[in-house]
Design the sequence.
């Protein structure tokens, strides 16, 4: 799973009034882009971990790849236009057919929120794992 | 002191287990061993005497077995139809050897020593038992315990 894969999935999802940015969620003037530009979805680069899932006494190597990708977005906390539906749609991306076809049997996603000034900041952490 | 260090994945140094049937020379080299336990469990005969507050005991015969776990390799487990003629162990595979209750000879090389000298090989003969291949959603690769129930004594060379 690459960042581009997730960007494409989000582009094809129903994300209501939100749009997806191709930029990384870097910081400008001490503010992350997802704070400066509310209602824009930013996706970070993936963190990939490869571990030996079944250690053996010879040279067989069954490796497990775990990919973690984080999505950020913000919107005015005062009004939440279709917010719940958008979050549900973004959560459902973890079980997209394309993701399953890539062989990811472990598909998890967690949503956390916080407030910054008048903004509700949402962070979605996707975690995909498969055997290589 | 030199301890036994079977460096996993290092050819010629790592632990190996070879199974042979009869007088065949090639045999089946069991791949993907996860762990191995060499058992030599002596029975004990116990008796008491009227002049002692403690029991007397003497070791008698031993029950020997090799316990291990493997990641199931299809060819090694179910045998290779294309194995060299006369190599029954490789042709039958672990499952065939167990199903047909074939007496196998085994050579367990424990691995090199930490000072890079050759280690010991424990040999004997017995029957493959205890196969229980299992897979689960959390662990989606087949693994199985394997026991070689040893008949007779070990030899160490």
Sequence:
């Amino acid at each position: 799973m690459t960042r581009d894969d997730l960007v494409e999935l989000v582009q094809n999802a129903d994300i209501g009034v939100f749009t997806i940015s191709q930029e990384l969620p870097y910081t400008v003037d001490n503010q992350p882009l997802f704070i400066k530009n509310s209602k824009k979805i930013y996706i970070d680069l993936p963190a990939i971990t490869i571990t030996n899932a079944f250690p053996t006494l010879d040279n067989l190597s069954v490796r497990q790849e775990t990919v973690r990708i984080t999505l950020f977005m913000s919107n005015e906390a005062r009004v939440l236009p279709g917010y719940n539906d958008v979050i549900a749609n973004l959560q459902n991306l973890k079980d997209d057919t394309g993701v399953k076809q890539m062989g990811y049997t472990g598909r998890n996603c967690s949503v956390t929120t916080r407030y910054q000034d008048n903004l509700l900041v949402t962070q979605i952490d996707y975690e995909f794992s498969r055997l290589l | 002191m030199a301890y036994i260090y079977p460096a996993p994945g290092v050819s010629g140094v790592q632990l190996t287990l070879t199974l042979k049937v009869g007088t065949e020379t090639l045999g089946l080299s069991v791949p993907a061993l996860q762990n191995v336990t060499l058992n030599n469990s002596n029975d004990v005969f116990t008796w008491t005497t009227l002049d002692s507050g403690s029991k007397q005991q003497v070791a008698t015969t031993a029950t020997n077995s090799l316990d291990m776990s493997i990641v199931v390799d299809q060819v090694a487990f179910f045998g290779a139809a294309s194995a060299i003629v006369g190599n029954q162990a490789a042709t039958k595979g672990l499952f065939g050897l167990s199903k047909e209750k074939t007496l196998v000879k085994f050579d367990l090389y424990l691995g090199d020593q930490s000072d890079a000298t050759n280690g010991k090989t424990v040999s004997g003969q017995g029957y493959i038992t205890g196969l229980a291949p299992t897979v689960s959603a959390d662990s989606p690769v087949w693994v199985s315990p394997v026991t070689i129930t040893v008949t007779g004594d070990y030899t160490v060379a």
Notes: Helices of chain A lie at 3-12, 33-36, 83-92, 97-101. Chain A touches chain B through eleven residues (CB under 8 Å). DSSP finds four helices and eight strands in chain A. The beta strands of chain A are 19-20, 27-28, 31-32, 40-43, 47-52, 63-76, 106-116, 119-131.
